[in-house]
Amino acid sequence: MLAIACVSTGCGEPEGETATKTSEVVTPAPSTSVNPDAELWDPCHLPDSAISATGLDPKTEVPDVAGVDFDGWQVCTWQSNAEWYSLGVLSGTPTLQAVRARDDFVGITDYSIGTRAGVQFLDAGDDKGLNCSIAVEIPQGTVMFYLTTRYSIGKQGDPCTEVRQHADALGPYLP
């Protein structure tokens, strides 16, 4: 775009010299790069009223993961009003079967949200039971609800009970 602006305005032209202006219109070529995330449902578009109704603070919304965009995923995170945990909602293309097949997830049990097939699972390395997740099918792949205990405060309840409450309440807003 900068090159187009320079061609049309004559930037970079030495003083005292005149450039020959042309009426040629330069049209940029279409981008050949594809943004794999553009087609994914963005959990940051969940209504603030729905987020608030589940016990999360909409003012704490953080897109991505710690400010990092992961290819193939749309992510949004909120802190709970109880303050001891955060909930991340991730939208990605992996199938529910692919989630079941991961060896870094353990304790996988069936869990449905409304009519959507899903699973509840734990992180394999989480010996203290600080985190719990639910994944459900959507047309583009899966949505994961990932509850993480805030280490600075510590676990003050059952992460799986909390993540089920949030997933059930936000389920009607999924695509």
UniProtKB/TrEMBL annotation:
A Pfam family recorded for this sequence: DUF3558
Highest taxon of source: Bacteria
Q: What is the protein name for this chain? A: DUF3558 domain-containing protein
Species source reads Nocardia jiangsuensis
Its taxonomic path starts at: Bacteria, Bacillati, Actinomycetota, Actinomycetes, Mycobacteriales
